[in-house]
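[09:14] KT: can someone run the structure on this one? pasting the chain below
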Amino acid sequence: MSQEDKKKQEEIIEETAKDEDIQDKSKEEENSLEDELNKCQEQLKEKENEYLRAYADLENTKKRLEREKNSALMYANESFARDLLTVLDTFENALKSIDQIDANDEGAIDKIKEGMSLTYEQLLSILKKNGVEEIECGTEFDPNYHQAVMQVDSDKHESGQIVDVLQKGYKLKERLLRAAMVSSCK
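[09:31] RB: done, structure tokens below
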């Protein structure tokens, strides 16, 4: 073999070795990229699971809060109703005692009147405790709180002033429950 042939053969061997090195490096890079891809896919699955758990927790919390809200609304008047039971008991006792009163007893009407007055005061106290207040009806007509159901002539009142309260009005804190029905001066 000639020198040139040997040189060519060596060059071919070197090129083949370089190609093999390049292929080996390429395979290493490919394996490295596959490993990186697998790691990323695993991390993605973990994050998806975390997201699904967080979403499920959020949905459960929403449902629980909705149930609690509904329960609170349903039983919001529980304290008020419990307070009214004492008035109901008082009325029942009054009815029983009326049956036992002798019709010839002259003080019977006074006893009934006193019992009714005490019960009325008890009811007003409970209403006030729960924020229900009577609307004051002075002389000035206020369309926000008064409803004029009739107009009358009056020498003692100016036009538009309240003459008489026909039915009391009430408000719950600042919200109108029922307007006071009044008669006003023409």
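[09:33] KT: thanks! The two ends are 138 Å apart (CA to CA).
[09:34] RB: yep, looked fine to me
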